[in-house]
Automatic annotation (TrEMBL):
<dbReference type="InterPro" id="IPR004358">
    <property type="entry name" value="Sig_transdc_His_kin-like_C"/>
</dbReference>
<keyword id="KW-1133">Transmembrane helix</keyword>
<dbReference type="InterPro" id="IPR036097">
    <property type="entry name" value="HisK_dim/P_sf"/>
</dbReference>
<keyword id="KW-0472">Membrane</keyword>
<keyword id="KW-0067">ATP-binding</keyword>
<dbReference type="Pfam" id="PF02518">
    <property type="entry name" value="HATPase_c"/>
</dbReference>
<keyword id="KW-0812">Transmembrane</keyword>
<dbReference type="InterPro" id="IPR003660">
    <property type="entry name" value="HAMP_dom"/>
</dbReference>
<dbReference type="InterPro" id="IPR005467">
    <property type="entry name" value="His_kinase_dom"/>
</dbReference>
<dbReference type="InterPro" id="IPR003594">
    <property type="entry name" value="HATPase_dom"/>
</dbReference>
<protein>
    <recommendedName>
        <fullName>histidine kinase</fullName>
        <ecNumber>2.7.13.3</ecNumber>
    </recommendedName>
</protein>
<keyword id="KW-0547">Nucleotide-binding</keyword>
<dbReference type="InterPro" id="IPR036890">
    <property type="entry name" value="HATPase_C_sf"/>
</dbReference>
<keyword id="KW-0597">Phosphoprotein</keyword>
<dbReference type="Pfam" id="PF00512">
    <property type="entry name" value="HisKA"/>
</dbReference>
<dbReference type="GO" id="GO:0000155">
    <property type="term" value="F:phosphorelay sensor kinase activity"/>
</dbReference>
<keyword id="KW-1003">Cell membrane</keyword>
């Protein structure tokens, strides 16, 4: 403001000098004053102060206002930068709280959105690392148990600590059984990691789901008869043509039937029900064995999860079957869930009848 006042005085001095040194300019200004005074019927323009001082005041006010606005925006920008540095120091739960107008408002919104995205990415990365650690821990635990037995029994044979040939054969049989258990775990782990890949191919073909399920049921009849269990197929459809990867879908139903035979304690029936509902097929694999506790239903599809840890030690299993099944169903654009009550424990699958490429790709990326 001081600079503006000095500038105003300097301009006034220069104008005064110009008027004193130029009579023609003075005459022109005098005639202009006369014209304004006669036209507006007022003598306000006869005094230069009545015109010049308000003009300088308006110009000075506009310049001061422009400078204040600019300074205010610089302060806002400096404040935003300080807030950004505070967030960058590791305070990712903090957001810039104040609201602004114009472009700075967009900057604040973009910064807060960027921080949200960064926090989400960090959390996803932590979950991935945690998931990897859990996977390594679970695999190590499940492999160590049979491996310890294999080493122990083969060590007895190596040291000759057996009395008869039959006892040596017993030790080798146990070691062989444990080795097959390890192979089953490795195969399931390979299958699980394979179906979890975002770009895993789904080799779709057109097939009859009813025919596929009936063939699977026939393959399990012998094993089911040994346990006194009937495997039944129920459907009101004569055929149900759909698109899908038959090799992967066979793995899903094999896992579900195998689980029913292993863990459906007291079951006498395994029923595979096939229904058509609009553009999707609803397939239910259920058994009338011991129900699954309600608190375990939501965890059934977690890898390595077993409902009864003590029982699963007696019955071989990797805990990956349902996780693999869920991922295969997701790859086909469907979903699977479980229900259990005193009558039936059911695994219900919804699958689209026709291929949906965009849906498949989004399901594969999950």
């Amino acid at each position: 403001m001081i600079l503006l006042l000095l500038l105003n005085v300097a301009i006034m001095v220069v104008l005064s000098q110009m008027l004193n040194n130029s009579p023609n300019l003075s005459d022109a200004i005098y005639r202009s004053k006369n014209i304004f005074a006669s036209s507006l019927d007022s003598d306000i323009f006869w005094s230069g102060r009545n015109f010049v001082f308000p003009f300088f005041f308006i110009v000075d006010a506009l310049i001061v206002f422009w400078r204040l606005i600019r300074r205010y925006r610089q302060m806002q920008l400096r404040h935003i930068i300080n807030e950004l540095h505070y967030i960058a120091d590791g305070n990712y739960n903090y957001r810039i709280p104040f609201e602004l107008r114009g472009d700075l408002s967009k900057v604040v919104a973009s910064i807060n959105g960027l921080v949200d995205s960064t926090v989400a990415a960090i959390e996803d990365e932590r979950e991935i690392e945690k998931s990897k650690d859990e996977l390594i821990t679970n695999v190590s635990h499940d492999i160590r148990t049979p491996l310890t037995s294999i080493i122990g029994y083969l060590g007895l044979i190596e040291d000759g600590q057996y009395q008869t040939q039959e006892e040596a054969l017993k030790y080798t049989h146990i070691a062989y059984t444990k080795a097959k258990q390890m192979k089953s775990l490795v195969d399931d782990l390979f299958e699980y990691t394979k179906v979890r890949q975002p770009s895993v191919p789904v080799n779709r073909v057109s097939f009859d789901m009813i025919q596929l399920v009936e063939q699977l049921a026939a393959e399990f009849e012998l094993e089911a008869d040994k346990k006194g269990v009937q495997v039944l197929v129920e459907t009101s459809e004569s055929s149900l043509i759909m698109d899908g990867d038959t090799e992967k879908l066979v793995r899903v139903f094999s896992n579900l039937i195998t689980n029913a035979l292993k863990y459906g304690t007291g079951a006498t029936q395994i029923v595979i029900k096939i229904e058509k509902a609009g553009t999707e097929a609803i397939l239910t694999v259920k058994n009338n064995g011991t129900p699954i506790p309600r608190e375990s239903l939501d965890q059934l599809f977690d890898r390595f999860y077993r409902v009864d840890e003590s029982r699963s030690q007696e019955i071989s299993g990797t805990g990956l079957g349902l996780a693999i099944s869920q991922n295969i169903v997701n790859l086909h654009g469907g979903y699977i869930y479980a229900q259990s009550n005193r009558q039936w424990t059911s695994f219900i699958i919804h699958l689209p009848l026709k291929a949906n490429t965009s849906k498949d790709s989004s399901a594969g990326s999950r």
